[in-house]
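Exercise (ungraded).
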Amino acid sequence: MKANIKELTKGIFKENPVFVIVLGLCPVLGVSSQVSNAIGMSAGVMFVLLFSNIIISALRKVIPSSIHIPAYIVVIASLVTITEMVMHAFVPSVYSALGVYLPLIVVNCIILGRAEAFASKNTVVDSILDAIGMSIGFALGITLIALIRELFGSGTITLFPMGNFSGVINIPWFYDNPIRVLALAPGALLIMGYLKAFFDWNTSRKKDK
Amino acid sequence: MSYIAILLTFIFINNFILVQFLGLCPFIGVSKNSENAIGMGASVTFVTTVASVVTWAIYYFLLVPFNLQYLQTLTFILVIASLVQLLEMVIQKISPALYKALGIYLPLITTNCAVLGIAIINITNSYNVMEAFTAGLAAGLGFTLAIVLMSNIRERLDLMPVRGPYRGMPIAFISAGLMALAFMAFDKSLITNLHLV
């Protein structure tokens, strides 16, 4: 049981897909200008990663090794198509905000990477834990970047509208003094660079101890 | 939209890497020296151009007549994967010299967001076949421009005294961010000011 828990937690910090392995960057930087988009993208990635890991680990003895990559891609692409249709039907605002990045989950290296490196060699239960851990790690990474960019870049935090709540929270001081560049494209790259430096520094500090 | 406007849009205004963040993995991974960067850029340009035209044809001659537009993502990725394989074989047969230069990069391109990205963008913008061809070419050229500039910066950075935790990837991201800042000067108003619409 202890080993299983390790599969779950490794994706969150030690092997965080965004900051440590640095995979699947296109959506991380592309849709992180608003917190709500980051949450929508995380939900999409979580669904696709969970089911692709389940299907691939269940079929790992059936899929011939010579065509395993095309087979994985078909599984992943079908799951992404399902996600697209569900989001289009139920959350059209998120669907249009994610735009081209939603179908691009197909070529997100995290999903194919986990299928190849983990699900194809491990049992279904371990693969489920791995997928949950990795997607939580991804969600934390993308939401952290989105939070920093939106808070400092436009002084707001955008969540989903519910009832009387419009979905946008204005943060008093930051709203009047936004650093606009952070909300735009260069801000995503700069913040990614500084956060990556922080995580590298943190890892090397732990190693020294 | 005129063809020059499409070229300017995809090379500068909506540069695939620095503005839209499509194809970042090879941008960070293969930009360590300029020779590899040129090879990667050339291969991507080649594949985006061919893939734009082929996926356009598949969409309008196969998916639309049978009302199967929802299969777009699934079909496009399969088409791109087989296309890359096919191109690899054709280039190997026709021009061994070109294969030697581009060969190692071609398999990496299947999972490059830029290729699937341009195929989907062509459909969302409802381009005709010539516009799709131009957009594919321009997207590849924009990618090449960014990756070649980046590789030159990184070659110089290797000689610089970069502080510990910033070494390697973080400084690459920060330099890319500063490049993106420069690219913000290319605005949509460029197209209207040049009377290209």
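Further reading is listed at the end of the chapter. For now, observe: The first helix of chain A runs from residue 2 to 10. The longest strand of chain A covers residues 156-158.
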